[in-house]
Write a structure and sequence with these properties.
Number of domains: 1
Largest sheet: 7 strands, antiparallel
Radius of gyration: 18 Å
Number of helices: 7
CATH superfamily: Extracellular Endonuclease, subunit A
CATH architecture: 3-Layer(aba) Sandwich
CATH class: Alpha Beta
CATH topology: Extracellular Endonuclease, Chain A
Strand content: 15-25%
Low-confidence stretches: 1-30
Mean pLDDT: 88
Helix content: 25-40%
Order of helices and strands: HEEEHHEHEHEEEEEEHH
Structural class: alpha+beta
Shape: globular
Length: about 250
DNA sequence: CGGCCCTAATTT
DNA sequence: AAATTAGGGCCG
């Protein structure tokens, strides 16, 4: 059933793409399908769509399984400002993480889709503070290695036209347990997968950072998207061909 | 020194 | 539960 849905979805995407090409002409061939950034997901997942990101929120862990978004050059340049605080997602009705769970836990309320990637719209900025988009993160890692990866992504978005990014928690041995009365599970590590089109070819790069004090530069944590997919058992860019996820081309990722 | 990642205490 | 206020540390 799931497989047929997937195939059906791909047929629809292909049909839309063909239609798009007919209308727009060959110069549009560089544009990847809308929602290209969304990973593979099952019917049992709770998908929440917001202006700046789409996420799959997990009832059991009380963190997202993944958060996906597109980052364009213009979005990366934007500097809108507003004051927002962490809050519950009105689009998620079942029990979810709260501020109390994180308060004095020793763990950061770490953004998956970064606040700084959402400064092109005040609504997107506000929604980035929903717990749908938050995981418990080591503070040194969040403000160190993870932040450097986020800033590296923004610099890549400025160099190229747009990036497709999906990131989320990695659970292996659950060595950090849970926090708060809600029992929010603390991830063992985090993954981030990035895709970008350059010269008609798709390029990808990934990162895995342990949820512990990490401060090295992005390349230290670089891995293929393929290897992330093995670790989390999920296809991250279903519409990308396998070869694009099997290697990292540091000539295009500058 | 500004930008970005935050925290905690207090008030509503 | 959320808004307000005040503050810290790291890095390019």
């Amino acid at each position: 059933m799931k497989k047929w849905l997937l195939i059906g979805g791909m047929v629809v995407v292909a049909a839309l793409t063909v239609g798009f090409l007919v209308i727009k002409g060959p110069e549009a061939s560089a544009a990847l399908p809308q929602d290209f950034e969304l990973p593979e997901y099952g019917e049992d997942e709770d998908i929440v769509r917001h202006l700046g990101y789409t996420a799959s929120y997990n009832h059991g862990t009380l963190v997202p399984d993944w958060v996906a978004w597109e980052l364009t050059r213009e979005e990366a340049k934007a500097r809108k400002e507003g004051q927002f605080s962490f809050s519950r997602d009105p689009d998620v009705r079942f029990p979810k993480a709260s501020r109390e769970d994180y308060s004095r836990s020793g763990w950061d309320k770490g953004h998956m889709a970064p606040r700084a990637d959402m400064r092109w719209d005040l609504k997107a900025l506000e929604e980035s503070y929903y717990f749908t988009n938050i995981c418990p993160q080591d503070h040194t890692m969040n403000s160190g290695a993870w932040r450097k990866i986020e800033e590296w992504c923004r610099s890549q978005a400025l160099l190229h036209e747009r990036l497709y990014i999906v990131c989320g928690p990695v659970f292996t041995n659950h060595r950090h347990g849970t926090i708060g009365e809600g029992c929010v599970q603390v991830p063992d590590a985090f993954f981030k997968a990035v895709a970008m089109e350059n010269g008609g070819e798709l390029h990808t790069v990934g990162f895995i950072v342990d949820n512990s004090p990490q401060t090295f530069s992005p390349r230290h944590y670089a891995v293929t998207v393929d290897s992330i997919e093995t670790v989390i058992s999920r296809n991250l860019f279903p519409l990308a061909d396998e070869a694009a996820e099997a290697s990292i081309d540091w000539n295009v990722w500058k």
